[in-house]
Amino acid sequence: MKLLIVIDMQNDFIDGALGTKEAVAIVPNVADKIAKARAAGEMVVFTRDTHQKNYLETQEGKNLPVVHCIKDSEGWQISKALETKASRIFDKPSFGSMELADFAASLNGLTEIELVGLCTGICVISNAFILKAKLPEVKISVDASCCACVTPESHKTALSAMKLCQINISGE
Q1: Is 65 helix (H, G, I), strand (E, B) or coil?
Q2: Can you tell me the distance from the alpha carbon of 138 to that of 65, in angstroms, rounded to the nearest whole number?
Q3: Which residue of 5, 27, 35, 55 is surrounded by the most CB atoms within 10 Å?
Q4: Angle of the 152-164 helix axis to the 125-134 helix axis, nearest 10
Q5: At what angle do helices 98-105 and 125-134 cross, to 10 degrees?
Q6: How far apart are CA 92 and CA 109, in angstroms?
Q7: CB of 140 within 8 A of CB of 167?
Q8: CB 41 within 8 Å of CB 65
Q9: What mean pLDDT is predicted for residues 113-123?
Q10: What's the farthest any 2 CA atoms get from each other in the chain?
Q11: Predicted TM-score (pTM) of this structure
């Protein structure tokens, strides 16, 4: 069984407060990846970066003082270009999600996890490492053509770091 995890494809990361042209460019790739996964009978889940109104008072807010992904805001929403129906969505208050890793570990017959989404060097890499630690014998992969980061250089750096930790990278 294969699980596709779509990381933080939210408006604020695509074309909002922390958006980039690279993030905008991958939206069609991610939509296509989701459609193909569903057609193949694979499970698709999403994560959603979720902050509260006091974001600037948090440790993350003090280090990244850009208000984004405030729960129930337009920027918090997953892009309407991506079909989320019938998919579980994991709201996460930080970069990685232990709840997501526990969920993946609970799936019987799971042989592969593929991650796509934003941002390669923060949330994608964090979740990939947590999943690799929780499920060391499950193949973990990332499709680089369905990911973007703050800069193209940080995207490449994150992909290199994941390769070092035996996470398979495709789509380069």
Answers
A1: coil
A2: 36
A3: 5
A4: 10
A5: 40
A6: 25
A7: yes
A8: no
A9: 98
A10: 44
A11: 0.97
